[in-house]
Design a protein that fits this description.
This protein is α/β, with parallel strands linked by helices and 444 residues long. Helices cover 44% and strands 13% of the residues. It has two domains: 10-81 and 282-443, EreA-like (biosynthetic domain) (EreA/ChaN-like  fold); 154-275. Strands 1, 2, 3, 4, 5, 6, 7, 8 and 11 form a nine-stranded mixed β-sheet that branches. It has a two-stranded antiparallel ribbon with strand order 9-10. Helix 3 runs parallel beside helix 6 (122-135), helix 7 (154-168) packs antiparallel against helix 8 and helix 9 (192-200) packs across helix 11 (227-250).
Length: 444
């Protein structure tokens, strides 16, 4: 646990608990979210976080909020902490392109790179089927999209580019094949072996991927396939460039690799907004550590920024609404190490002195905090711990590494607290009862 973590005094605890009891909105039915939608107002970008990548309840609440944003406020797309090629295939399915998948289950079941459960789950199947139905009656330029923001898909993006260029541009295909040959010796270890090799061999594959990106950008006006496929070709080339940088940087640890990744996410969001027009509105799904403004945590002191911070800085606080999520206890899907089998794990009660513990102490019901309602008080002055669970999780050691020192009202514009949560329902293992679970809060 960081020394930056403030342990609340008895008086601070009493003050914080009292404020929560007075100012929090109970979440009891679907209308309980109305204060959140009032806070969102005319915002252009709404980011919906999560305290883990394996919690059923976070996905459900984000799905319900996203549906309302699409139906009531005209949001144009959802962009998630996922790989571009996989999410783009889902995008083509939900937009009803001919021959682009036979059901959300089959499309999402193909999300087979670890951690598979993040997107290959029943909760996202339900959302994808809803989006596909919603899009059916809309013209193509009005259909709601679904895209990936992340940088991990080096090999998948390379294969997607070669397939596209094989049909449209045989000359540039040669550059893609050269890049593939450069990376090929390292392809089965997710970039780690490439990163290690660059320590000892000064030449890397950077020149190949940069040359490919430049050539594709020159040729874009001549590609006459549908506009999204053209955009996707350029995006896959950009993923390759940033993935190469990311894998070289990650070997050294620290802030640089993290910043490459979040800068890529922010650039991808910018590109998607431009693609959809100057009035486009975006919904972002990502972990709290990406969504919540890094400047309100100890991340900033370590030289790290994130997409929440970058987007606030670029578009302005009034156009961006950051929504965090958290819970006191429950269950989660995670792995014991990178690449390990997924399993359901217990999430113990939140550590005493954390935000989650304070919210539980106030009362044990689900609740919504709107930060503008809190004014200046203990909430704005202290870095209390805020739980963050990744795809690798060890509950028994949680208090030593799973709490991010956070000034909650500066990190988010709103916060949804769920007292007890349940584990996600992955597609690649049988869910309980072998049936789709309830997929939206309040049965809607």
């Amino acid at each position: 646990m960081s020394d930056y973590f403030t342990r609340p005094s008895k008086s601070n605890t009493e003050e914080a608990v009292g404020i929560i009891q007075q100012r929090a909105y109970p979440l009891t039915d679907k209308d309980s979210l109305d204060p959140l939608f009032k806070r969102i107002g005319g915002a252009r970008i709404v980011m919906l976080g999560e305290a883990s990548h394996g919690t059923h309840d976070y996905y459900n609440w984000r799905s319900y909020i996203s549906r309302r944003l699409i139906e009531e406020k005209g949001f144009n797309f959802i962009a998630v902490e996922g790989d571009w090629p996989d999410c783009y295939r889902l995008n083509r399915y939900i937009k009803n392109y001919a021959g682009e998948g036979k059901g959300a289950f089959k499309v999402l079941h193909a999300f087979n790179r670890w951690p598979t459960w993040m997107w290959a789950n029943w909760e996202v199947v339900a959302l994808a089927d809803w989006l596909q139905q919603y899009n059916r009656a809309l013209p193509l330029n009005k259909k709601v999209g679904f895209y990936g923001l992340d940088v991990y898909s080096l090999w998948e993006s390379m294969e997607s580019i070669m397939q596209y260029l094989g049909k449209t541009d045989s000359r540039t295909l040669k550059l893609a094949e050269d890049a593939f040959k450069c990376f090929e010796p390292y392809r089965y270890q997710e970039g780690q072996s490439y990163a290690r090799a660059t320590q000892f061999v000064p030449e890397s594959c950077e020149n190949e991927v940069v040359r490919l990106l430049k050539e594709i950008r020159v040729k874009l006006p001549s590609y006459n396939t549908d506009h999204e496929n053209v955009f996707s070709a350029e995006q896959n080339a950009l993923v390759m460039v940033d993935a190469e940088r990311y894998y070289r940087a990650m070997l050294h640890g620290g802030a640089h690799a993290w910043n490459i990744r979040d800068d890529h996410m922010a650039q991808t969001l910018d590109r998607l907004l431009k693609l959809h027009g100057e009035k486009a509105k975006a919904i972002i799904w990502a972990h709290n550590t990406h969504v919540g403004d890094a400047r309100a945590t100890n991340m900033s002191g370590e030289g790290m920024f994130n997409i929440g911070e970058l987007t606030r800085l670029k578009y302005g606080d009034e156009r961006v609404v950051l929504v965090g999520f958290g819970s006191y206890k429950g269950a989660v899907i995670a792995g014991g190490s990178w690449g390990a089998s997924m399993r359901k794990m217990e999430v113990p009660p939140a550590f005493e002195g954390s935000w989650e513990h304070l919210l539980h102490t106030a009362n044990s019901y689900n609740k919504l905090l709107i930060m503008n309602d809190l004014h200046q008080n203990v909430f704005w002055e202290n870095h209390f711990g805020h739980r963050a669970i990744g795809v690798v999780y060890h509950p028994q050691y949680e208090q030593y590494g799973n709490y991010v020192p956070t000034i909650l009202p500066l990190r988010y514009d709103a916060f949804i607290y769920l007292d007890e949560t349940t584990a996600l329902y992955p597609l690649h293992i049988q869910p309980d009862g072998h049936q789709m679970p309830e997929t939206f809060p309040f049965g809607v």
